[in-house]
Design goal:
Elements: E1 5-11, H1 14-26, E2 31-34, E3 51-56, H2 60-69
Antiparallel strand pairs: 1-3, 2-3
Length: about 80
């Protein structure tokens, strides 16, 4: 089963993405963080390929509002 997703944030640092995901989960919005940093072993990769926080398309506007209210920069 495939879901249509929207990127609601990009993060150079894993912990920022995890924190943002936590705000979304607390708001009842399912979210996933796609990270390619070799399991944390090579965090420098994130400067080339930042972590992407995604939600289902139907939750995008609400997710952006939650992130904005939590102090995260708007946009992806």
């Amino acid at each position: 089963m495939a879901f249509d997703v929207a990127v609601v944030g990009r993060f150079t640092y894993r912990h920022e993405g995890e924190l943002a995901r936590g705000f979304l989960l607390d708001a009842g919005i399912q979210a996933a963080l796609f990270i390619d940093d070799v399991g944390g072993a090579d965090p420098a990769i994130a400067f080339v390929s930042p972590a992407r926080l995604v939600v289902q398309v139907e939750d995008e506007q609400r997710a952006r509002a939650v992130l904005r209210d939590a102090g995260f920069e708007a946009g992806d």
